[in-house]
Amino acid sequence: MNSLFRKKSITDLLAQSQQKSLERTMGAMDLTLLGIGAIVGTGIFVLTGVVAAEAAGPALILSFVLSGIACALAAFCYAEFASSVPISGSVYTYTYATLGELFAFLIGWDLMLEYLLATSAVATGWSAYFQSLLAGFGLDLPKAFTSAPGAGKGGLIDLPAVCIIFLITALLSKGIKESTRVNNIMVFVKLAVIIAFIVAGVWYVKPANWTPFVPFGFDGIVTGAATVFFAYIGFDAVATAAEEVKRPQRDVPIGIIASLTVCTALYIIVSLILTGMVPYTKLNVADPVSFALHFVGQNTLAGFVSVGAIAGITTVLLVMMYAQVRISFAMSRDGLLPSVLSSVHPSFKTPFKNTWLTGLVAAAIAGFVDLTTLAHLVNLGTLAAFTLISITVIVLRKTHPTLERAFKVPFVPVFPAISALFCIYLMTSLPAITWTSFIIWIAIGAVIYFVYARKNSKLV
């Protein structure tokens, strides 16, 4: 039983963080843009309309505030850990140091599912926007190559989704410096598009569209919060970059908190303007931002938004896959997954084989699987991770009170405890089928742990 809860020592983790197997090239601005690149995408360009129409109405703004509070509390916990133990692996590594190997493996397994499905799901959204953009120029791809089998559209493979994943894979395998440069450019593009929407849309807001403000009651706000939580997924990916940051103790907390703050403000403003421009009952569409501009006659700007949406979703893809590779890299380095996943390319200084293996699996899922029924799994996995990071901060404060911390969560254990309870509350709002699927995935992970990981662990 003791081996199930064996822990990595903080001393060993700090020593490991000093090794230079991965190239340190990123600063605070890069990390902030990495976080924004991960967060601003599908949530703002897709989910806002559906949630407003089906769950929250104009009170969508309160759903974003509720989710934002839960994420902010978790973000503080991530920032403290990242400033104390600046190493790849995010909550997996933090759990390994505080709660033990079994919990660490299971949350790492959970995160692998979260990031992998998020990558595939976002690629599917990218494909839809890309096809829409082509259609605007009178170009249509054959139906057989535009959707996965089972999506009800007569497709054999979602070829655009597969192609974009392969392009992202090639970029990430080449090097983090090149990936960061592309991410930064695309983040500025999508921020420009969002600001243009805000500036143009504010003149078409009709306060009457905000009545009734809470058409679905408080339950609708909570359900909306659990759904739009997907829109915030990504800031935690900043913590996975710790070993590739020049000054991780200082820059990682800045990147986490700054990116979350900017994105929360953008979500609140956009949702307020969106529901003010268009009656919420008409927003159940896949491209609500573009739809709202078409609704008020701003057709040229609507086309511009489609380009921004493609750029935005591309950066989400890049960061989700990046985080997936860094999680499995850390687990492999600890012996819990095959060693091939932690091999580093001698020239590119990236987990080259791991990156391409992840890309192939993500492309296969995006190309051949209809992901509609799996979308909530990503939210549940993230909420589980946020719950654990909140608990581990409390444990680390008790077990290592003298550990140097460049950033500290205020009011411990109160804030982390509220964070954990908040996340659990949102988890209870997700459908039963999501919980069933999640339990099955964790059970598979438990089998792999006892059959392979426990025996091959480098902790003895």
UniProtKB/TrEMBL annotation:
Keyword field: Membrane, Transmembrane, Transmembrane helix, Transport
Top-level taxon of origin: Bacteria
Transmembrane segments annotated in the record for this chain: 31-53, 59-79, 91-109, 155-173, 185-204, 216-235, 256-280, 300-323, 355-374, 380-397, 409-427, 433-452
Entry membrane topology: Multi-pass membrane protein
A molecular function (GO) term: amino acid transmembrane transporter activity
InterPro entries: AA/rel_permease1
Subcellular localization(s) per the UniProt record: Membrane
GO cellular component, one term: membrane
Name of the protein: Amino acid permease
Organism: Metabacillus indicus
